[in-house]
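>> received
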Amino acid sequence: MLDIRRLHMLKTVAARGSITAAARSLELSAGAVSQQLAALRHDLGVDLLRPEGRTVALTEAGRVLLEHADRILAAMEEAECAVAAVKGTVGATATLAALPSTVARIVAPALTALASHHPQLALTCLVTDQAQLRELVLGTVDVVLGQRYHHLSETAPRGVEVSPLLDDPLLVVTAAGGSDERPVALRELATHNLVVPPATTDCGQAILHACHQAGFTPTTRYVTADIAAQLALARAGLATAFVPQTAIDPGTPGIRMSPIKDHPILRLLFAATRHTETTNPTTAAVVAALRTAARQDRTTHLPPP
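>> returned
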């Protein structure tokens, strides 16, 4: 009989690309993972992995087994959800992966509410902008608070369920001065020195896309995805920044925030979970808390007129 743990190890190795990387994420030694995969190979009598440079890849037999493993692992989770639904109570542990820019105004209020309503739930929060949905598929995290920019196609890995939370506009941030916070036409920024995230990021691509739509190539003087650095450069008058509204404390001194009136740049904040036919009370509680926090943030901090 196939061992569920070994199937999960095979799936993790295939996703991570190496036994060492898989072992790190599973918090095991590489030797332990190799030993379990060797046992799986012995059980089936066929090679499942082959070396490919410094990485490993699935053999044809490995790919076939992984397809079945995905269904088996999904069925196991479905069974766990069904039992949890019968119990009708929120579980003891869960892991949330969230973007750094959502922590102050969505994640922190949501965690506070969860601690109040479900004190038995120990929620681990991983603040990261790297490969969140992949971690969800692998089972490393249970809920993802992620983002998608509106100019990008809507895609999600198989088996992932996405719930929209909030449309979050990027605001034009400059040094404070005067009282003029009128909406800004993007074309007005053609001569500004800008601080933008790297072009390899979704946000960086969204800004470039919007500027090109407005008819100009932006003058980039500073490149950083660190929002605190972007705000510092804007406050000093060194650059103009594009920052998601949710990522800015409304009481931040020394800056002026203006909406974009002609080519708005929007990111959709969403909560993602693994799809199951039966609702998992624990992940449902986390998503509900995130949704409530997002709704309250939208009401409390309306965008400038």
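>> The first strand starts at residue 49 and ends at 52.
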